[in-house]
Each structure stands twice: as structure tokens, then as C-alpha cells.
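Hi R.,

Here's the chain you asked about this morning:
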Amino acid sequence: MQGRARRMASGQGRRDRDQSVAAFPGLRSMIWVRWASLSLVVMLCLMAIEGHVYAIPHFYAPYGESVFSVPTVVAALLSLCAVLLQHPLRAVTRAEATLWSLVVVTAFVARALHEQGLRIGSGEMGINTGVSFILLAVGQMTFGRLRHAPFVLSLLSMMLPFTALMGYLFAQPALFGAMSLPTCLMFLALGTACSARFARRPMMRALISGSQVGQASRLTLAAWCGWLAGEALVLKLVPPAFYTLSMFVLLVISSIFVFIMVLYLAMKAEQNRVRRKTRNRFLVEALHRDGLTRLYGREMGTLYMQCYGPTASVAMIMIGVDHWEDLVARKGTETAERLLRRISGALYLDAGSEELLIRWDDGRFLLLSYALTPETLKDRAERLRQKAGATGDLGGDLSEVSISAGAACARRGDVTLEPAALRARAALLEAERAGCNRVVLSLVA
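And here is the predicted structure, written out as C-alpha cells:
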């Protein structure tokens, strides 16, 4: 029994994880990116260790005089072990906090030894490297304890390595200083791997979402990285005499693109503001009820279509009193209003949880349902017509009152109320002309 319970619990856990992955389709890809980043860190550290052991400078200093030094390798391996102990959406464990503390201590000790003229192997841990390690470690240690600081510090830890990488791409030694090219790549990979625990942040959620916004964000990020690589390639290919001119042209093009992006984002923000304002006003109007029947109006029907129309074919049944204007002229307004209250009460009680009953106009009601099919639509309309006709004794001679119904189905994906509702109204008028007390279907779009 215990083994069966454990299997059931593990199965439920797998289902929960699958549901979480389904909620964020980009989360699975982020997990793969995390492991790819950690693999890159392992490869760079192994190459640096082998280069220091076997005296192969190209393994730890592939470009320029900056070196992936031994203290940097030690701090990188400690950081790697701490990241492997992470649970992306859980708090920091004691073992992980200890490893991050050792990273901070390593950064301070390496700088102190360098100031004293002591070195361990070739090269040194530069100031930018030490600051990046400290920012990353503090940001990860404070995860779950502070609100915004961990995410901000983790992003800042990648700022100096990114600047150094741009220095290597555009041949500007002043930008990278003592930070080697493998160190830049190692920091960016570590920062990417550590970002998995911030998946619930709004900024990260927009990046990993499977929606159109998420896809556009990832495409924009890829295009930006491609643009930076393209700029570096262009500057490598142009002759030295045209280097300054090329930099100016690329700067102008980048400025134009940034200006266009700012205008586009401002346009989308204004559209969203107007849409939210219109939606709020529409919701207020949709919540208003009819004073006579206490039913919602057409605005609520439009809201129903916007909710269920994209995924279902919404069926509509319009029920009305035949020759309503003549009845009001013969029996008076008070009797007609009592009749409407009886009919609306009977229809409201018969409406299901997946259905919405609204008042369409004088003498007519509209029922919307996403659960009905064309095969069951006519039977449901007939049952509603009979319920509306069983209104009891209203006093006076009302034996000639008859009720008809018209039914129609909206197309799947239709989010507007009027097309199918007008076809249901046309079917209702056809039923009145055909002799009243009947149901007419209009299923052709």
C-alpha cells in the first residue's frame, strides 16, 4: 500500500510539473538553456585548468594579455557548485549560501594577495572580475529574503562582463581590462543559468511565455544579439582608414532603430491605455441590469462572446412574445410588464450554469450557451419556449398570447454578438409569420 501511495504521489507530482510547463511553454526551453550555460562554464573551467597545468597559454588567455587566472577558476567552480544546488523557485539552502560566501571570500583574498604582490599561477583576478563575482554571490544569497535586490544584483553582475565582451568584439582593450574572454563568457553563462530562479518575475515571464508577446520578445533579443555581432563583423572587415566612418554610420543606424522602437512602444502603450479605459467602461455598462426583468443587457452578451467565442461555437436562442406591439396596445403596459416579469423569471430558473440569459429588446430574450450543439439546439429551444409559455394566470383574457423561438449558432472564433443574434432574430420573425408557437432554426452562417 505504501509503495502504491508513493507511486500515486510521484505521478501527481509529474502531472503538476507538466501543468506548470504547459502554463509557460518557454520554461522547458529555459531549462535546456540553463544546462547548456552550465556546460559552457564547465568546458571553460576545464580548458583553463588544463592550460595552467600543462602551460598552454591559449587555453586560458586566447586573446590579448588578460588571463583566466587560477583564483577566477576557483571562484567559478564554487559558483558552479552553488548553481547546481539551486532549486529555481525555492529559497536558498544553507549549503548554497556557504558556497556563495566562499566565492565572496575568494574574490577579496585574490585582490588582497595581488595588492601584496603575490600570485597563484599566471595572471590576476581583475577588479571588474571580483566585483562581478561579489554582485552575483550577494544577489543569489539574498534570493527569497529581499524583494527586488536579488534580481537587480544578478543583472548587474553581467553588466561588466558584457562590457568586456563588447570590448573584445570591437577591439577596445580599455573596456575589458584584466578580464579575459573566457571569463566574460563564463560570467554571462553563469548569469543566464542563475536567471532560472527568477522565472516568476514579470520581466522573465514575458521572455519565456509561449504567447505572441513572448515570441516577439525572444525574436527581438535574438535580433539584437545578431545586430551586435553584425556590427563587430563589419568593423573587422572594413579598412582601418574607414573605421571611424563605419562606427559613425552604425551609430546613426542604431539610433534610428532605437527611435523607431521607442515610437512603436509608445504607440502600443497608448493603445493598451485606451483599450483598458474602454474595457473598464464597457464592464461597468455590462454590469447594469434591466430595471423590469433584472436581467443583463446586450453588453454582457458581448462579454460572453469575447470569453467563449474564440474556442467554441456559441448557440443563441431568441424567445419572444408573438406580435408584442399589438399585445401592448390591447392589454396595456402594466399587463405586458407583468407578462415579461413572469417569462423572464421562468427562463432564468431554467438557464444552466454554462448559459447566459439577457434581455434583447421589448418582448424578446436571448439565451447564449457554449455547451449546445446544432443537434440539441432545437430541443433546447422548444423546452425554453414551453417554459416561457407556462407563466400562470396573469388575470384577464391572455389565452391568445403565444411565444415563439428562433435559434442560430455563431461560427467558432466569432467574438461579436450581433451576427448570430440577428440571425436568431430573423428566425424568430419567421416563426411569427409561419403561425406562432413554434421554433425556427437558422444554422447557415
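One quick note: The radius of gyration is 35 Å.

Cheers,
M.
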